[in-house]
Amino acid sequence: SEEDIANEVLNNDKDPMLASFEKNRFQTQLSADDWNAQIMENEDELAPLSMVMKRLAILEDEKNAADKLLEEEYQRRMDNEDKYYLEKRKVLEEAITDIQEEVYMGKGSKVEEGKEEMDVKSGEKEGVKSSTATEFSA
To answer: Which of 5, 13, 40, 68 has the smallest C-beta neighbourhood within 10 Å, fewest atoms?
Structure first.
């Protein structure tokens, strides 16, 4: 029977008064009509419980709304943080590119200047040779 199962589950090694109370309560809960009748009899006494339960539900709703606001604020902050990070990263990458261009263009222009100097010197030498050659041939 249900009572035997309940006794096995609960392992009735309790105070006999407590066991008797639990047994009576269990029996009244088994018959829904009796249980509902007891609740209806105590409706006036249970009215404050209803108010507390409503306030508890309101409190839960407020907590959920606050959590949602926090999540939205966190998401906005993360978006701003990501935007700030990406902007700063872009600026730093542009700085890297500018520095590299300056270094390589500077070296490149020095190399080209060196070639021009070599060309000018060799041109001068050639010019000297050619003018010397023209002097001798004339």
So the answer is: 13
Question: Could you tell me the CA-to-CA distances from 25 to 4, 22, 35, 42 in Å, in that order?
Answer: 15, 5, 9, 15
What the block records as the tokens of 14 is: 């309790």
- Contact indicator for 41, 13 with CB cutoff of 8 Å: no
DSSP 81-110: HHHHHHHHHHHHHHHHHHHHHHHHHHHHHH
Distance of alpha carbon 79 from alpha carbon 72, whole angstroms: 10
Q: Give the dihedral of Cα atoms 47, 48, 50, 55; nearest 10 deg.
A: 160
Model pTM above 0.70: no
- Taking alpha carbons only, the member of 5, 24, 28 closest to residue 16 is 24
Q: For residues 106 and 98, give the distance between their C-alpha atoms in angstroms, rounded to a whole number.
A: 12
In terms of Cα–Cα distance, which of 35, 32, 22 is closest to 3?
Answer: 22
- pLDDT tens digit string along 48-80? 888 899 999 999 999 999 999 999 999 999 999
